[in-house]
Amino acid sequence: MPGIDKLPIEETLEDSPQTRSLLGVFEEDTAATSSYFSQLFRAMQRIYDAQNELSAATHLTSRLLKDYEKQRFPLGGDDEVMSSTLQQFAKVIDELSSCHAVLSTQLADAMMFPITQFQERDLREIVILKEVFQIASDDHDTAINRYSRLSKRKENEKVKNEVMEDVYTSRKKQHETIMHYFASLNMLQYKKKMALLEPLLGYMQAQISFFKLGSENLTQQWEEFLTNIGTSVQNVRREMDSDAEATEQAIQDMKAASDPLYMPDPDPNQIPVNRNLTRKAGYLNTRYKTGLVSSAWDRQYFFTQGGNLMSQSRGDVAGGLVMDIDNCSVMAVDCDDRRFCFQITAFDGKKAVILQAESRKDCEEWIATINNISKRIYLSENPEEIAARVNQSALEAVTPSPSFQQRHESFRPSTQGRPKTGRSGSQCSAGSESPALSSLSLDSLVAPDTPIQFDIISPVSEEHTSEAKSGAQGRRTNPFGESGGTKSEESEDSILHQLFIVRFLGSMEVKATESADVIYETMRQILAARAIHNIFRMTESHLLVTCECLKLVDPQTQVTRLRFPLSSVVLCASHRENKRLFGFVLTTAGGREDGRPVTVCYVFESNNDGEKICDSVGLAKQIALHSEMDCKATQKQRDLDKAKEKQEEELHKQKQIEKDLEEQSRLIAASSRPGQPAADGQFLVLSNSQSEDSDAGEEGQKKGESDA
């Protein structure tokens, strides 16, 4: 390595122009060095950042591969081969991630640290010394100019000494500064080369160490594993190509076969009508009313299922029941000047649906299919056996959820003297009844011969129903005797407002309220009844939980369908396996003609977890309890304040009466001495009016004393 050019430190005191010119060359070299190292630092910083990102990405990939077996893909089954393969890949990539982490640490220590130190310490030191040298040089020039202007004729010894002392100090400072500056510039020539070579050396050593570490970890076993995986990937690719060719051929065949079906109304001679169908599905236009005389058409997908006609809109998860087509009548009709229309009328004539098909063939096939379904005879099992099997499956599906009972036991009335039902039955095996159900007969939970309501109907008595009919025709009666128009909405300052989307499954009157088993038995009977009678349609509502009540609101019209005061809700529980099912029991006072309360259990299906809804109801009851306690405490304090104010007012009146009596006594005493001089030496003369007032005051005093 050639020698290093240096600045002559021994010539710093002389500070000749040649020395200054040489200093300028070194300063230009320092500026070029700083610019070059700034670019080199940014390049190495990008290498370091990329390595850190690669290390983090490798670690994230390993973690995601480990979590693959925990994922539940809708179309992916339990592929144990894929899971085990990805676990092995995760192990290899995890080792590579550790190697990348070691490489990042080595790059930080061996590459980034030297160049960072050179930039932040050495180059910054040169910049600071240059500024100090410039200041010292300016001070020295100023002191020399002042020394040169000393007067020859008028010599002032004091001024001369000050100027000479100033020159001495500035020259010494300049000399020391320039020596340190020159020494730093000379050392910078060595540091520049070290700062250039050390990071490169550290980078190469870190990379070599990384490759050695990788070769040690990736053994022959991993090479065989990767070879096998590569072979498997090639097999999957060949299988995919073969499947793609078969699919393409099937598409071409179906295009050729389906060409006549593209016409909306094909020729009946080419595609004959099949009149022996017992199952049919396809898109139809359905007519519905939008006003008193106006109507509109909507395109939906219709299909037959058993003895029911179902419909499903695009985007819906499941179909809904349109009507029961057993023993119905169907015929072609003319409607709204549209072609291929037919009407289905229920057996009782109360409901009719008008539909429009795409073609004459489609219309005739729908009519023939519905006729075949309507007139066929079912040779099926005994209905009692079907009901028994459905009841058993529903009973096995219902399991208790004790969160509401455990968390909010304090809100129930005292149950002393009543037997407590066991909770251990929530984890019994499928097909066996819980101990609570075995110890408590079903008749003690649900009232016998109780009808199940599948629509939202207020549980009011006959008397309330007749009053509601006479008072307002067509107006829904609240089950708790509260009019819907007294308040526009619940108070807006309620602490809790939670909204849930629910679908009403059914409700029925129950007898017991001290155990959550009544909810599970109600769920069982409602699910069994829906399964037996093929009831699929459910009423969707918005359940609003506040600190005052539970409300069922129509999502379309925002009209309150039902309103339950929170104090009437005594039980709430959710299904254990199907988290979307929940129910609650409420008590209405004076619901019967004899004045006895009515207890009804409502069962719903929610888009949310039923346990969350039960927790929300429990939280609302807890907030309501605290609010009621606060109101009672506030009212008690108000009563105490009013009593205290009343006592103070009585005391004030008593003092005023005593003061008036004392004043009257003084006036009477003064009136009894008419000739006696007053305290100021004058005589007190009472007029007739004053005498009369005094007599009246004396009479009032005697009357007050007699009353006392």
Q: Would you summarize the structure shown here?
A:
By secondary structure, this protein is of the alpha+beta class. It contains 13 helices and 14 strands.
Describe the protein's architecture and organization.
This protein has 13 helices and 14 strands. It is an alpha+beta fold and 708 residues long. The protein has a 7-stranded antiparallel sheet, covered by helices on one side. It starts with 16 loop residues before the first helix and ends with a helix. The model is unreliable at 377-441, 458-492 and 677-694 (pLDDT under 50). Residues 641-665, 699-708 have a biased composition (Basic and acidic residues). Residues 277-375 form the PH domain.
Q: Count the strands? A: 14
What's the SSE pattern? HHHHEEEEEEEHHHHHHEHEEEEEEHH
Strand order of the largest sheet: 4-3-2-1-7-6-5
Mean pLDDT: 77
In DSSP terms (H or I, runs of 4 or more residues), the helix count works out at 13
Instruction: Characterize the overall form.
Output: flat
Find the structural class using helix and strand composition.
alpha+beta
Q: Characterize the main sheet.
A: 7 strands, antiparallel
- How helical, in percent, are the residues? 40-55%
Radius of gyration: 50 Å
Strand content: 5-15%
- In angstroms, what separates the terminal alpha carbons? 128 Å
Query: What ranges have pLDDT less than 50 throughout 5 or more consecutive residues?
Result: 377-441, 458-492, 677-694
